[in-house]
Amino acid sequence: QVQLVESGGGLVQAGGSLQVSCVASFRTQDYAMAWFRQTPGQNREFVAAINWIGTQAYYTNSVKDRFTISKDNDKRTVYLQMNNLKPEDTAVYSCAAMLDPEDGADRYEDGREYPYWGQGTQVTVSS
Questions:
Q1: Is the CA virtual torsion 86, 92, 95, 98 positive or negative?
Q2: Residue 118, class by beta-carbon neighbours within 10 Å (0-12 exposed, 13-18 middle, 19+ buried)?
Q3: Does residue 121 register a pLDDT over 90?
Q4: Which of 49, 48, 95, 53 is nearest to 73 (CA)?
Q5: Helix (H, G, I), strand (E, B) or coil at 87
Q6: Which percentage of the chain shows pLDDT scores above 70?
Q7: Which of 19, 14, 15, 32 is nearest to 116 (CA)?
Q8: Burial 32-67 (b: 16+ CB within 10 A, else e)
Q9: How are beta strands 10-13 and 121-126 bridged, if at all?
Q10: How confident is the model at residue 23 (pLDDT cuts 50, 70, 90)?
Q11: What is the DSSP string of 8-77?
Q12: For 75-109, how does the pLDDT look when each residue is reduced to its tens digit (9 = 90+)?
């Protein structure tokens, strides 16, 4: 059964750091993986993505230089290190996976391309 399970969310003060993790039930060597986030009443937003081998990373502009995505295929895990958190980063963070198309950032940033999703983990940043 294909599963993605997130962990590591929580409450943190503005300016603080948090790392969320996502463990896959399948071998991730061939998969691009990504983080998306969503707040109530808002559309799901792309946050970051990483290619199958972990050599290319993509970020939405609002998190560049603050967030880092990484991938450990041996552990079947993708991480999102979040630094200098802001209240507007508050959301449910979900990881997603797809067989890596290796054809550019546009597909990595489109949630419709990902067939596998986790349930999400809440990140709350207080001001």
A1: negative
A2: buried
A3: yes
A4: 53
A5: helix
A6: 100
A7: 32
A8: bbbbbbeeeeeebbbbbbbbbebeebbbbeebeeeb
A9: parallel
A10: very high
A11: --EEEETT--EEEEEEESS--TTEEEEEEEE-TTS--EEEEEE-TTS--EEE-GGGTTTEEEEEETTTTE
A12: 999 999 999 999 999 999 999 999 998 877 789 99
Alpha-carbon gap, residue 65 to 1, rounded angstroms: 35
Q: Please provide residue 80's backbone torsions phi and psi, each rounded to the nearest 5 degrees.
A: -135, 105
> Is the CB of residue 96 less than 8 Å from the CB of residue 117?
yes
Structure tokens at 85: 């958190």
How many other CB atoms are there within 10 angstroms of residue 114's CB atom?
22
The one-letter amino acid at 62? S
Q: Which residue shows structure tokens 């995505």?
A: 69
